[in-house]
Amino acid sequence: MLTIYPREGSAQPSGVTPQGPGLILMGGGGDIDAAFVWMHDVIAGSKEGNGGDIIVLRASGDYAYDPYLMKLARFNSVRTIKVDPKASAADLATVAGYVRQAQGVFFAGGDQANYVWWKGSPLAAAVQQVYESGGVVGGNSAGLAIQGEWIYDSVAADRAGADVEVTTKNAVPDPAEPIISFTHDLLRWPPLRGFITDTHFVQRDRLGRLAAFLARLHQEGAGDVIGLGIDTGTAILVDKHGIGTLIRNNPHGAALFLRGGVAQPIQQGTPLVYKGITVTLLDQDGQTYDFNKRCAQA
């Protein structure tokens, strides 16, 4: 089942050649105006040009992004498409047709389990094409959670119950618990190869659970994965050179890069023991991280 909301803005295609690619990694909570202005500028190649056609994808909610984005910057058009979790393969192919005509795609928040099942579909391929054609892709909250190579997908937790959630309080005492599940390669952004992203980071006390994810992934053969936790009201904007810049509307917001190695073997019911973890913290507006070199910039 699909809800294809009316297109806001021009009824004609923008015809713009986007000047990216770029990524918006937004940690949750209220949206950050500056991130969408940046999206426009990357697509248009300037602050004044045509910002292209934007598709907002979501599994719940409404079309509130459409007038919001049109007021922020000179986009040619914005359209929201809601993809129900019970949508068919034909529905995903229909949405892909809209996405292929866009220069920007943004994933709204919600539950990432409602996105990861798109893996391998024409819709996922269409989003990939937008980025590879120089467009901008991003997401907030659950829309951020799906951007890394590795995704904590919430599928097993949702299956266990509507109110079941993986938290630091249950992941650290038992990182092997069966409600932790992952999806690999829904989307394939070069800057985020070898990354898993997490959201609402400090606000929901997720440092411990992210460390548990890294240990679990390493034991399952994923290798040296970097965890990226981003706070509410905080975003990283990744440009076409792979340089990410921190922006915030939360004065205390930060982004944390967590890198481990080999944890002690994980066994059911055994607490996490993980030594040698290194942390890189961005906590000031304008600080940058080089996703190519995997390090912060001075």
Please specify the SSE layout and strand pairing.
Blueprint: E1 2-4, E2 8-9, E3 22-26, H1 33-44, E4 53-58, H2 65-72, E5 77-83, H3 89-99, E6 104-107, H4 113-116, H5 122-132, E7 136-140, H6 142-145, E8 150-152, H7 155-160, H8 168-171, E9 182-184, E10 195-198, H9 207-219, E11 226-230, E12 234-238, E13 243-248, E14 255-259, E15 278-282, E16 288-290, E17 295-297
Parallel strand pairs: 3-7, 4-5, 4-6, 6-7, 10-11
Antiparallel strand pairs: 1-5, 2-5, 3-12, 8-9, 11-14, 12-13, 13-16, 14-15, 16-17
Helix pairs in contact: 3-5
Descriptive tags:
single chain; 298 residues; alpha/beta; Rossmann fold; 11-stranded mixed β-sheet; 4-stranded mixed β-sheet; 24% helix; globular
Characterise the protein shown here:
The protein has nine helices and 17 strands. By secondary structure, it is α/β, with parallel strands linked by helices. Strands 1, 2, 3, 4, 5, 6, 7, 12, 13, 16 and 17 form an eleven-stranded mixed sheet that branches. It has a four-stranded mixed sheet with strand order 10-11-14-15, with helices on one face. The model has no long low-confidence stretch (mean pLDDT 96).
